[in-house]
TrEMBL record:
Keywords: FAD, Fatty acid metabolism, Flavoprotein, Lipid metabolism, Oxidoreductase, Peroxisome, Transit peptide. Residues 392-536 form the Acyl-CoA oxidase C-terminal domain. This is acyl-CoA oxidase. InterPro entries: ACOX_C_alpha1, Acyl-CoA_Oxase/DH_mid-dom, Acyl-CoA_Oxase/DH_mid-dom_sf, Acyl-CoA_oxidase, Acyl-CoA_oxidase_C, AcylCo_DH-like_C, AcylCoA_DH/oxidase_NM_dom_sf. The lineage of its organism: Eukaryota, Viridiplantae, Streptophyta, Embryophyta, Tracheophyta. GO terms for biological process: fatty acid beta-oxidation using acyl-CoA oxidase; lipid homeostasis. Signal peptide: none annotated.
């Protein structure tokens, strides 16, 4: 039931956030009590990421004071629309607003706007006149959701059905808007997607907690081989198993704090509608959704393999978790596309810095570290390898931020250079991998900063020691994961690189010793993990009972 409700949150959210009081008055109660189940019809067969290229049209008819909704070709068929195939009675349809002009052109295209379109009869539940609905068919996962395809043939809706918070059409067909440009209107319209991205980032961490809990508990329970003439050891005693799972457990904690902070920022944004915060939350939600869901998708396969054959039993959940979560990397905005929003925002901030502007609240560290960046790496500190230094949060955060600053500065130079010969689109594409690395590097810096804050504000001394250990493992594992970048710019000398690798392996061993407490702290009840091999007690007997012994 979780996902159909979520689709209603997209339908309901779009009406509440893109509409005005008249829409709240007419639809709020029905949305709230599910009398009006609806769907969010943005994606088309030919376009998903590129919203500005959507082809469905909404043409204003001044004679009847209506919009005519049309699917001009098969490429414009609305596709993947959750709740459309079975339950939905309404759709928020994203279409190009076309207004009549009384010149030779005859019509002006005002860009993508959102419209409420009833799609099924309230009583008979049959598709309404001009509306053709089909099911998109069986999917890799999330088959509890009825994703449908919608074709519109001259479907007439009242002018009032335009969700007119950011742009409106008067009775005589004149367009007016409170926003200064089509770009600002487009940004505001897309703002509706941010809530879903916040939700996806947050729920992806929950999936990661479940997977890490199952794999960790099973790895402590499972014994295989041991020293000669001695009892077998638990597989989590193997350095390789620790390397697979303990940095992942550390990342799970890191993402928990970062996405909790994102939800808080999102809530503040919904209250204040502060423009700078809107842009900040857009970039942060896009970045965290992309980074966390990609990491979780990879981790689900690592956990499945780390549990051997029993990880492949459906009852132990890795298959359904992997299949249901996989689409988190695509819907609500494809990860590759969303990371580019982060890079674009960083470049905007960078340019404004060098034009004397100030950085938005999340990126203000760039102002400081850009200056740090300008001074070449310190050859002395590049060789420091002591544990106190490597576990110092200042060293860790400076390293992450130094990398981001260098990536930002170097890609800005490359874009400027390539734009001269390739134009901005060509230059962007020539630097695309660099831009994606920049975005991920920045998001890792934000995640670490939030984790360090959480450690420093932890009220309980023993928990703080444990969190500090986990945070140090997260930081050093991420630096080791990209050690090539740090070595290429001599930010880390060879001896320091070796020390970082050695220490991160030792910290994985130390985290292994508190792994039970760390996963228990997620406080996941058994009916949520629902994997016999992860039960806190009698796991094997629960498992044998499951198959009938
Ligand atoms: C919190 C609880 C919520 C409830 C829980 C929800 C759980 C999760 C939901 C589960 C169900 C999910 C079901 C799936 C639903 C869907 O998939 S719905 C469809 C999703 N589709 C997309 O996300 C489309 C992706 N594409 C885009 O977002 C845009 O096309 C784009 C790629 C970002 C735009 O690219 P482009 O045309 O190149 O324009 P730009 O120049 O990049 O942008 C123009 C300006 O607009 C600003 N902007 C863009 N997006 C936003 C935004 N979301 N918010 C604010 N601002 C935005 C951008 O920064 C540009 O601004 P300027 O630089 O100032 O011009
Ligand atoms: C289960 C499910 C539920 C969904 N629910 C809804 C819903 O309720 N409502 C709705 O409107 N939509 C919904 N969608 C659609 C979803 O939002 C789109 O699939 C998503 O936005 C991606 O668009 P696309 O599939 O057209 O992929 P495309 O945009 O075609 O992208 C395909 C690939 O090309 C790459 N690519 C595209 N553009 C670029 C670029 N500029 N740079 C680099 N690489 C690029 C992407 O990385 C991606 O890997 C759903 C989809 C699924 C599968």
């Amino acid at each position: 039931m979780f996902f159909p409700l979520l689709y209603c949150s997209l339908w309901g959210g779009s009406v509440m956030n893109l509409g005005t009081q008249k829409h709240k008055d007419k639809y709020y109660d029905g949305i709230d009590n599910l009398d009006y189940p609806g769907c969010f019809a943005m994606t088309e067969l030919h376009h998903g990421s590129n919203v500005q290229a959507l082809q469905t049209t909404a043409s204003f008819d001044p004679i009847t004071d209506e919009f005519i909704i049309d699917t001009p070709n098969d490429g414009a068929i609305k596709w993947w629309i959750g709740n459309a195939a079975v339950h939905g009675k309404f759709a928020t349809v994203f279409a190009r607003l076309k207004l009549p002009t009384y010149d030779t052109k005859g019509v002006s295209d005002m860009g993508v706007h959102a419209f409420i379109v009833p799609i099924r009869d309230m009583k008979t539940h049959q598709p309404l006149l001009g509306i053709e609905i089909h099911d998109c068919g069986h999917k890799v996962g999330l088959n509890g959701v009825d994703n449908g395809a919608l074709r519109f043939r001259s479907v007439r809706i009242p002018r009032d059905n335009l969700l007119n918070r950011f742009g409106d059409v008067s009775r005589d067909g004149k367009y007016k808007s409170s926003l200064p440009s089509a770009n600002k209107r487009f940004a505001a319209t897309l703002g509706e997607l941010v809530g879903g991205r916040v939700g996806l980032a947050y729920s992806s961490v929950s999936v990661l907690k479940v997977a890490a809990t199952i794999a960790t508990r099973y790895s402590l329970l499972r014994q295989q081989f041991g020293p000669p003439n001695q009892p077998e050891v638990s597989i989590l005693d193997y350095q390789s198993q620790q390397h697979k799972l303990m940095p992942m457990l550390a990342s799970t904690y890191a993402f928990h704090f970062a996405t909790t902070n994102l939800v808080e920022k999102y809530s503040e944004m919904k209250k204040t509608h502060d423009e700078e915060l809107v842009a900040d939350v857009h970039a942060l939600s896009a970045g965290l959704k992309a980074y966390v869901t990609s990491y979780t998708a990879k981790s689900l396969s690592i956990c499945r393999e780390a549990c051997g054959g029993h990880g492949y039993a459906s009852v132990n959940r890795f298959g359904s978790l992997r299949n249901d979560h996989d689409i988190f990397q695509t819907f609500e905005g494809d990860n590759t596309v969303l990371l580019q929003q982060v890079a674009g925002d960083l470049l905007k901030q960078y340019q404004s810095k060098f034009k004397g502007g100030t950085f938005a609240v999340t990126w203000n560290y760039l102002r400081e570290s850009m200056n740090t960046y300008l001074s070449q790496p310190n050859p002395v500190t590049a060789r420091w390898e002591g544990e106190d230094h490597l576990r110092n949060p200042k060293f860790q955060l400076d390293a992450f931020r130094y990398r981001t600053s260098r990536l930002l500065q170097s890609v800005a130079v490359r874009l400027r250079k390539h734009s001269k010969s390739l134009g901005s689109f060509g230059a962007w594409n020539r630097c695309l991998n660099h831009l994606l690395t920049l975005a991920e590097s920045h998001i890792e810096s934000v995640i670490l900063a939030k984790f360090i804050e959480a450690v420093e504000s932890c009220p309980d001394p023993s928990s703080q020691v444990a969190l500090k250990l986990v945070c140090d493992l997260y930081a050093l594992d991420r630096i080791w994961n990209d050690i090539g970048t740090y070595r290429n710019v001599d930010y880390v000398a060879p001896n320091k690189a070796k020390a970082i690798h050695k220490l991160s392996e030792y910290l994985s061993f130390q985290v292994r010793n508190i792994a039970t407490e760390l996963v228990n702290a997620f406080d996941l009840p058994d009916h949520v993990t629902r994997a016999p091999i992860a039960m806190k007690s009698e796991a094997y007997s629960q498992y044998t009972q499951h198959v009938g012994f």
